[in-house]
């Protein structure tokens, strides 16, 4: 076991840098924390962490490498991911002017499951996450590492991801933080919608140009958390 500590530390550092990077997960979690209850936001964070397990599972099974190397399969994944981000963005952009969209006592709450599902699908349908985990399991993690230990790495990354976004949820559900955002809650919805649309557009453009599916697996791609 001692021989695998350097590998685990490398995995932990790469993952920490990746999960802290801005991207769809962070954008969705920010909006959840500001527009829903703390409980729902925390469940969304758990959903994001649960999505990591999807990527870990297909990476362990070797399916991730097949997806990455297949232009058709990877393009389909990109399109589905882009459509999902667009769907979320439309909900943000439909915010009505004059309303305060930061959570209040009168906010219509999501169910806990709906919050979890939003976080889960946002992460699970992120094609950049596919590139990241395929690269991670191809380069950073040795093929000789026992599968049980590789699964342990995956579980660690899922838990750390969930904990990171739970901290995001707790911070942005603090009353003082929410009050600071309450004056421009409408514009926050618009900004989040615009960011998500840009990310969706980036995915669609990369699909048209054919980028990503044939990327060198020797490069650990950045997953945007």
UniProtKB/TrEMBL annotation:
GO terms for molecular function: amino acid transmembrane transporter activity. Keywords: Cell membrane, Membrane, Transmembrane, Transmembrane helix. The chain crosses the membrane at residues 6-28, 40-65, 71-90, 129-149, 155-174, 186-205. It is a multi-pass membrane protein. It comes from the Bacteria. Its main location: membrane. GO terms for cellular component: plasma membrane. It is found in: Cell membrane. This is Lysine transporter LysE. It comes from Marinobacter profundi.
């Amino acid at each position: 076991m001692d021989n695998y500590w350097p590998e685990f530390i490398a995995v932990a550092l790469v993952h920490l840098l990746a999960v802290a990077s801005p991207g769809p997960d962070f954008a969705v979690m920010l909006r959840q924390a500001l527009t829903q209850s703390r409980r729902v936001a925390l469940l969304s964070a758990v959903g994001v962490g649960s999505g990591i397990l999807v990527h870990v599972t297909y990476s362990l099974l070797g399916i991730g490498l097949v997806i990455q190397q297949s232009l058709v399969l990877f393009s389909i994944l990109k399109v589905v991911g882009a459509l999902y981000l667009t769907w979320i963005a439309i909900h943000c952009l439909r915010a009505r002017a004059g309303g305060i969209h930061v959570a209040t006592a009168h906010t219509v709450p999501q169910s806990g499951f709906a919050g979890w599902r939003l976080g889960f699908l946002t992460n699970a349908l992120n094609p950049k996450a596919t590139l990241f985990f395929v690269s991670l399991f191809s380069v950073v993690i040795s093929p000789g590492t026992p599968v049980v230990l590789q699964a342990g790495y995956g579980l660690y990354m899922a838990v750390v991801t969930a904990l990171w976004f739970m901290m995001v949820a707790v911070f942005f559900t603090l009353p003082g933080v929410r009050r600071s955002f309450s004056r421009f809650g409408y514009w926050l919805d618009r900004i989040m919608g615009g960011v998500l649309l840009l990310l969706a557009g980036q995915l669609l453009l990369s699909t048209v140009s054919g980028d990503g599916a044939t990327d060198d697996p020797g490069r650990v791609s950045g997953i945007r958390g």
